[in-house]
Design a protein that fits this description.
The protein has three domains: about 240 residues, no CATH class; about 80 residues, Transcriptional regulatory protein pf0864 domain like (Alpha-Beta Plaits), CATH 3.30.70.1380; about 60 residues, Ubiquitin-like (UB roll), CATH 3.10.20. The chain contains eleven helices and 20 strands. Strand 2 and strand 3 form a beta hairpin. It is of the alpha+beta class. The protein has a five-stranded mixed sheet. A four-stranded antiparallel sheet has the order 15-16-14-17, covered by helices on one side. Helix 4 packs across helix 5 and helix 10 crosses helix 11. It is about 35% helix and about 35% strand.
Length: about 400
């Protein structure tokens, strides 16, 4: 399992992330072939070395050679889905566009499927996003973490007119991430860069115990007077025994709700971004039996989750507080079985053999139904196939 740390002291953008990935040793020829798998035309890719404040970085460029159409989110998703890219790359790329579409929809008071992408729907932004998804796969990065980001200042011109920095989409996407408002001149984080962070990354907890294997620098377009305009990517592994993160817990005591509604409520909460939902029997004042609803989620999801709870339950008040979690490091991979490919989750303390190997239930159930097999047999086969992939590679080192 590898982690990539985005040291965004000068902000970040899609092309800066791609440049840093290429500087970490990913083949540009293979990169071009991967992008060619997507049905795009009218562009030319290039890279060059750019020395910024004595730092040698890769400047990645997309030259647009013919007019591009305005694209909807659905068109872009279909374009990626129909490509010859690996499924894992497609999932990452689509996840980035999904959070971007949701942010744009909220800002423009529409729905994600009706969002018209302008700058981020252009061919260069599509290439940046697909390139990041593909490049992280090439580096075997399963966990992406990011430093606090400078948000810049001033105004920029967009298709909608003059807008403040950070751009509304950028501000929406980075809710819940540590940022430094007013730090820097101009736009320091672009909507494309923010979407990558929102979809794939988590905030880094500093100081960070980290073993670096590769370090790459991606150069930005403009030159800054107060700092080198480069993004540093450090690829390696966190050396702590366990992963950790910060969440919030939202809870409410409910004593007068039709029990049939809880299943629907849980489905809506998970769809809105809850990481975990629990229902615990309790006793309230005057001996009234009740249910304590507990929801674990990212802080940025608080308002959305609260709206679901108020809409679907009879509660008139919620409690929430920050919670810190220690957890095993996790990685999801596909394994081959006689019933097809099954996703399996590997969980482990860092540097050790997997503590748990858990086949994805939905994949196993679908395969069992498709082939008329026993669900237990499919799950056992997936678990055995997963063990075979890790047994030769996970040894303890002194």
């Amino acid at each position: 399992m590898k982690t990539a740390y985005l040291d965004a002291f000068s902000g970040l953008s899609g092309d800066m992330i791609v440049g840093a990935i290429l500087d970490c040793g990913v083949s540009f020829d293979n990169f071009e072939r991967a992008i060619a798998a997507v049905a795009l035309s009218g562009y030319k890719l290039s890279t060059r070395r750019k020395v910024v404040s004595g730092i040698s970085a890769v400047k990645f460029d997309v030259e647009v050679t013919e007019p591009q159409p305005e694209r909807h989110f659905g068109e872009i998703r279909a374009m990626i889905d129909s490509s010859a890219l690996a499924d894992s790359v497609k999932r990452r790329a689509i996840a980035i566009f999904e959070v971007l579409a949701a942010a744009e929809a909220k800002i423009h008071n529409t729905t994600p499927d009706h969002v018209h992408f302008h700058e981020v729907g252009a061919v260069d932004s599509i290439i940046d996003i697909v390139g990041v998804a593909w490049g992280l796969e090439q580096l075997a990065v399963t966990d992406l973490i990011v430093s606090a980001m400078p948000m810049g200042s001033g105004f920029v011109r967009s298709q909608h007119g003059i807008i403040p920095v950070p751009a509304p989409a950028t501000a929406e996407l980075l809710a819940g991430f540590p940022v430094r408002l007013g730090d820097g001149i101009g736009e320091m984080v672009t909507p494309t860069g923010a979407a990558v962070v929102r979809a794939l990354a988590r905030p880094a907890e500093l100081p960070l115990s980290f073993k670096a294997e590769k370090i790459g620098y991606g150069a930005g377009t403009r030159d800054s007077s107060d700092r080198p305009n480069v993004l540093r990517m450090i690829v390696g592994a966190e050396t702590g025994a366990f992963d950790s993160d910060e969440m919030i817990e939202i809870s409410a005591n409910i004593d007068d709700l039709n029990p049939q509604i809880y299943d629907h409520l849980m489905e809506r909460l998970f769809a809105a971004g809850a990481r975990d939902v629990t229902l615990t029997p309790t006793v309230m004042k005057k001996g009234r039996p009740a249910i304590t609803l507990g929801v674990i989620a990212e802080a940025a999801r608080r308002e959305e989750l609260a709206a679901v709870i108020f809409a679907e339950t009879s509660t008139i008040g919620l409690r929430y507080h920050p919670v810190a979690r220690l957890k095993l490091f996790r990685e999801t991979r596909e394994v081959d079985t006689r019933w097809g490919k099954i996703r399996v989750k590997f969980s482990s303390a860092n540097g050790h053999s997997p503590a748990t190997i858990s086949p994805e239930y939905d994949d196993c159930r679908a395969a069992a139904n498709r082939h008329g097999a026993a669900l237990r047999d499919v799950m056992d086969a997936a678990r055995d196939a997963a063990r075979a992939t890790v047994a030769p590679h996970h040894t303890h080192q002194k």
